[in-house]
Amino acid sequence: MKSFDLSLYLVLDPDLCREIGMVETARLAVAGGTTMVQLRDKSADTATMIETGRALQLALAGTGIPLIINDDVEAAIVLGAEGVHVGQSDLAAAAARRRIPDTMILGVSVETEELARQVDAGLVDYVGIGPVFATGTKPDHKTPIGFDGLARIVAAAPVPAVAIGGLKQGHAVPVLAAGAHGLAVVSAICGQPDPETAARSLAREIEEARR
Ligand code: TZP
Ligand code: MG
């Protein structure tokens, strides 16, 4: 069954996680209430993605938290990961879906209303929308959209959305008010002195924002 919860979506970055590593960061974040984990390593080859992915699968075993692989469809298939996330510059959604089974989650990044409208809900399970704010985590990011832009793009998307880009404590209310189902974060958890507490505070805030 393809069920997933976008509430607090951790996107792992090897540089930001370097102190304790991506696997330990994921383990702590999930203990704190993270609901999805994505492996995003732009410089890793497929063999390295598979190796890291295996270690993440061990750390997530029994938690029910899905592991999503960024861009590397091949690695995701070999791993039997729960899903794949592709950007606009990556393998198009249709091409990705042709390579992965229906049972796998497919996420796509969209930065504009037009791209959101083009999303095929028959192929794609969720969209990542951003950057809400400028962020040093993705130096090549597009112009920040703010919460107003987020709301417009969410409204144009035919599938559930998760917001990304510069999001941290204090942003759950405006993100959910814009119609997104959750917050995707890198630096708000990766590289924090205590990733578990960071995740727990965010998860609590999201839960409270829903009330
Ligand atoms: N896509 C748009 S912004 C971004 C990605 C992967 C990085 C978000 O990182 P942070 O540290 O949560 O701002
Ligand atoms: Mg990508």
TrEMBL record:
Binding sites annotated in the UniProt record for Mg(2+): D71, D90
GO CC annotation terms, alphabetical: cytoplasm
EC number per UniProt: 2.5.1.3
Co-factor: note: Binds 1 Mg(2+) ion per subunit.
SUPFAM superfamilies xref list: Thiamin phosphate synthase (SSF51391)
Catalytic activity field: 4-methyl-5-(2-phosphooxyethyl)-thiazole + 4-amino-2-methyl-5-(diphosphooxymethyl)pyrimidine + H(+) = thiamine phosphate + diphosphate; 2-(2-carboxy-4-methylthiazol-5-yl)ethyl phosphate + 4-amino-2-methyl-5-(diphosphooxymethyl)pyrimidine + 2 H(+) = thiamine phosphate + CO2 + diphosphate; 2-[(2R,5Z)-2-carboxy-4-methylthiazol-5(2H)-ylidene]ethyl phosphate + 4-amino-2-methyl-5-(diphosphooxymethyl)pyrimidine + 2 H(+) = thiamine phosphate + CO2 + diphosphate
Pathway the protein contributes to: Cofactor biosynthesis; thiamine diphosphate biosynthesis; thiamine phosphate from 4-amino-2-methyl-5-diphosphomethylpyrimidine and 4-methyl-5-(2-phosphoethyl)-thiazole: step 1/1
Keywords: Magnesium, Metal-binding, Thiamine biosynthesis, Transferase
One Pfam entry name: TMP-TENI
Residues annotated to bind 2-[(2R,5Z)-2-carboxy-4-methylthiazol-5(2H)-ylidene]ethyl phosphate: T135, G136, T137, G166, V186, S187
The UniProt record lists the keyword Magnesium: yes
UniProt-annotated binding residues for 4-amino-2-methyl-5-(diphosphooxymethyl)pyrimidine: Q38, L39, R40, D41, K42, N70, S109, K138
Taxonomic superkingdom: Bacteria
Coiled-coil regions, chain positions: none
GO MF annotation, one: thiamine-phosphate diphosphorylase activity
Enzyme class per UniProt: transferase
UniProt-listed InterPro entries: Aldolase_TIM, ThiamineP_synth_sf, ThiamineP_synth_TenI, TMP_synthase
Keyword hit for Metal-binding: yes
Function according to Swiss-Prot or TrEMBL: Condenses 4-methyl-5-(beta-hydroxyethyl)thiazole monophosphate (THZ-P) and 2-methyl-4-amino-5-hydroxymethyl pyrimidine pyrophosphate (HMP-PP) to form thiamine monophosphate (TMP).
Family: Belongs to the thiamine-phosphate synthase family.
Name under which the protein is recorded: Thiamine-phosphate synthase
Record organism: Pseudorhizobium pelagicum
Name of encoding gene: thiE
